[in-house]
Amino acid sequence: MSSEEKIGYFEVLSLLIITISAKIFLSFPRNMALLGDAAGWIIVFLSGIYSLVGYFFLSALLRKYPGKNIIQIAHQVSGGICGKLIGVALFLFFLAITSLYLRQFAESFILAILPRTPISVISILFLILLVYATLLGVETLSRVAWLLGPYLLTTLIIIFSFSLPQMTFEHLVPVLGPGPIPLLKYSFTHLSLFPEIILLGIIAPLIRNREKINRIGLYSLGVAAVINTGVIILTTAVFNYVETQKMIFPVFQLTRLVAYGEFIQRVESVFVFLWFFWAGIQLSGLFYGAVTSFAQTFRIKNYRPLTLPIAVLVFTISLIPASMTEAVELNDYTASPSLINNYYSIAAFGIPLLLWLIAIAKKHLGGVTND
Amino acid sequence: MIRRVILICLLIMITILANGCWDRRELESLGLVQALGLDLGPDQKGVTVTTMIAIPSRLGGEQGGGAGDKPGVFLVSMDAPSIYEAFNLINTTVNREITLIQNRVLIIGEELARHGVERWIDNLIRYREMRRTLLIFVCKGKAAKILRVQPQLENKPSEYVNALVALSRRTGMYPSVTLNDFLKNYEAFAQENYLPLLDKYLRKEGPEPETGPAENQPQSGGGVSKSGAGGTSQEKDPQKKDDLRFIGSAIFKKDRMVGSFDVYETQILLLLNDEFKEAMLTIEDPLKKGNYVVFKLLATAPVKIEYQRQKKVDQFKVHLKLEADLLSIQSQIDYTQPKLEEFLGRVIAGELKNRVEKAIKKAQQEYNSDVFGFGKKVRSTFITSGDYEKYLWPDKFKDARINAEVKIDLRRVGVQFEPPESR
Amino acid sequence: MNFWSGLKKMFRFGARGRQFSLGNESWERPGTNQPKPEPLYKDLAKNQELLEKIFELPANQDIVVRDFLVPSLNRKALIIYIDGLSDRITQSFAVLQPLMVLGPVEANGGKDPIAIAYEKLVPGHQIQKTSYLKDVVDGILDGSSVLLIDGSDQALVIETKGWEHRGVDRPNNEPVVRGPQEAFVESFRANTASVRRYVKDPKLVTEIFRVGKRSRTLVAVMYVKDIANPKLVEEVKYRIQSIAEAVDFIPETGTLEEYLEDHPKSLIPQMLSTERPDRLSAYIREGHVGVVMANSPFSLAIPATFTIFVHSAEDYYLRWPFSNFLRYLRVIAIFISLMLPAAYIAVINYHQEMIPTDLLLAMTAAREMVPFPAIAEILFMEFAFELIREAGVRIPSIIGPTIGIVGALILGQAAVAAFVVSPLLIIIIAITALASFVVPNYNASFSIRILRFLFIILAGFLGFFGIAFGIFLLVLHTVTITSFGVPFMTPIVPYQPRNKDRVIRPRVYDQKYRPMFLRPLDWIRQEKNPRRWDQPQSTIEKGKDNQNEQ
Fold first, then answer.
1. Which of A91, B15, B99, B280 lies in the 20 to 30 Å Cα band around A360?
2. Per the domain annotation, does C28 fall within a domain?
């Protein structure tokens, strides 16, 4: 990893916010409606609060070992083999999440605007972007995130405001959905709503102001939680929860409803730009995480030659689900193979927790402080 | 050397991609469907699809208005087991690819509506070209016949229908329902659907020279709502032109049409659903019988429904608060004095209360379908969705006790104080 | 180059090791090799022979050698100059007359005759004493006259430049309505003098270099010594010096630009080339470095960022609301000229549902007559328009307007009437062309023209998806490129709140700081509230001292 790169505060913030909230364009509202009926937003909200707690371990680790990213910390704290295992776990996490999102975003583009295009074309185009962005480095990527960020947010607000006339808060009742106990249970077990925060652990050493890392993580989680909750409330209020449970990409349907007078109608294709940029930035960030975690695990100095092979790997894995529904259901929490979701939470929140515990244990047992 | 290799690879890629452009469609290869009509097929299982396809050279361009006597659209009808197979069948004769991207109108024949739209709803929402902003109508008779009308003011019938539907804001006599609204109520388990009802209309251009004035009265006749308000004469004089007319709304229960409301009951329906904006109504003058008072009713505050669940029976109290603008006084009584204004307001309120309770009773007893949205109130008192689903509200609607209370404020009286008196 | 090294090269994007940046790191560079200069001889005959060999005399009849006797020193001397480049009047008054006719009789005194001549005999206003052959040759080629006296190994290069050149004229390529109407010309000193007139700061330093082994073109690097960042100045000077001896001939600042750029292969220009001295001096005053070259009416301002290409010279001469209106217009025009044809293709071929039904039917009716697909139409019309544009530049001015009418009107009208293109397309092309002329910089408008074609092709492949793809790639690229170490999208992307002059400009009296991305030595441009007369009375009387303290 080049020691020359330095990323600023706003750039990392926007990169993380975009990365964590990109899933709103996929079947995220549907999954929440399936779990919580009309109270899906409560699940997201509570899950956001829990993930703030889970983030505490990550930030404590980063503060304890400044200047190192999480894989280097793993090597240092838990020694060779264990560190490598953790690194490989993180690499597999990033790989899985990138391929899955790539597949789902490509499916959503095909569904929305390009029905006859084969999916490999869209996947390959995205991968060209990802490879190019990763080769240019995360500094460039975060600058792009900061450059495009306010416009993406503005467009999202435009979608909100166009949908406001069609929102009825009567659709948000019954208020507690399936009941308070299932809500609490789901929001805890399905903590994997914000796993991308671990990306902060990977790019931590590159941030210019070390002291602000904690704040970056908190703010990005907070804003992302607000965006996610807002979108769930919006889709549930416009389409009642029964319909949201059955739609594949609810936000896409929402953009189809945008109409203003006689002139502006059926303009959902314009919002393609919004998803494209959002997806591009998120996937680039996660892809960068995958490449660097692999490089860091095996102590490879220059991660750039790894981009092409890992890109091929991502492409292949993204084609594994046999149909669109299967691809989308892999993120679904009520379908039976929800191993992946549990795996996400383990990777994103379990690993920092584990490392933190080990670090605390070492200190208490009077172990060697190898700083 | 390396540059040549890259260049060759690039050229190969470009040729592969240029062969593709899988989604590119040239404008002149599109057959733009302007309106879609669905009827029950002859075998009771399939559907007859009628598409109204636009002819661009007659509708667009400089010649558009000039060729007014030739219709700018043409109709094609096909029988098929499903809607999309019907499109393929239509494409065996129409030389442009049928596409629904500019479609805004969907008309369902009454037979299909009464048979049940359950089988076709999925058809409508799954296909990506079909949009949720589609306007749906039910029509009496066959949709194919309704689509044959040639409106006078517009070249394109779909524009005509769209503009007409937009006017529902001004009259409140028929609702404006999109596929999205339809689906919301369809699955919500709290309210039943209603759709505007279309019929063919023989436009009267004045009294017949030979026969006396027809028994059809003008719209603003009578204060009492009678079903069958004017204009549905069935005999067609071949020289008279056909037009469309909205005659109210069709009431659904679950997925079948079970009945209809006429225009006045539809006004009540829209009032209770918060979709009513304004309308001009007439009542009989309370102080001088035989004369009418005309006023414009405005909905300014949303309707408030109070709900109380008592042991077996649900009790609702509907509070309506409306404003009225006085438009015309036929007797010379000066209703613009404050005391008489109040009195008039109470009279109007009483009249409306009658209409509301009649309409609700009709929905309860004749159709047993909660089109007014009382179920939404019931749902908001439940904490978990499981409890609500166990409650089974639609079966309980029939026994609910609903009272209405209407309050009318007479705010404006136009530009005149006292009505003119002849001396 | 075999395959593996080519592959390895591909993966070095961005990982170029250490790059130049204006940050606080020290930066050691290897020195430039300047060849050792040759000395002159003491003997006049030998010097003359040397120079005759260098200049290919007597075949070369441009060079004139005038030998004479200096009576006061009683030595032989000669002057060498180029006929046509030297001003005869100055020569005769400053050199020949004093030496040959008017000089007082001097004792020899053993001092160097050149020194005596320099101090007492030659009244020229600018004389350089040199003992190197290179300076002599350069001086002759510049138009100066070189005086050689027997017995001295030094020469005097006397400034006698004067030749036919174009006078200061109106700017052809950057006209403004409100503002000075002067432009640079090909004469080097006239250019530097123009800049001097606008920046009357004694700290404005002009360092002159000669680039090109065979062309020895004068290049001036102008900067304000206590504003410009010394690292930046060093870097500019270093780059110029390192190419000076490596190249034979550098004709114009455009070529120089290509030699000096950070990313010469990019589609986006990284230096601002301008014809107006007021614009260049505005940037010099901010802390940029200006490069002026002889024989070139375009000067460079280094470094240049994205916002600089959106600004025009007039922006600060107009009132604040008007210039902001123009800037908004310019930004919208950039978007239109870049993306309107591509958006048209995307909407017509892929997203037909976006068009209102009436318009769609009219367009279909028009397109039914045209046999070509939409993308072929657009490429054809764009190509025709580029032809018209290039032809318009080269056409002799007499028949220029006629061709304009023929090209634009008749071609367009006839094409529509012959059903080769549809009328809506002509409107789109016309609007795009107009919008592309709104861009105030010639280089930047080229980038937009080429990128427009790329976007059209991308839109033809995949509609809005292709356009989004293109935009993303373009943004990724522009965020990476640097202009002399300054990221190109400053101050938008490395966000600097103090630089308020991004796309919209703030009020003149609100801009307290100079652009921070240049890391100038003197940050503060003006006081916090420079409109002192606008303060309430009590603060003025009381705060006279306060203002001075700030």
1. A91
2. no
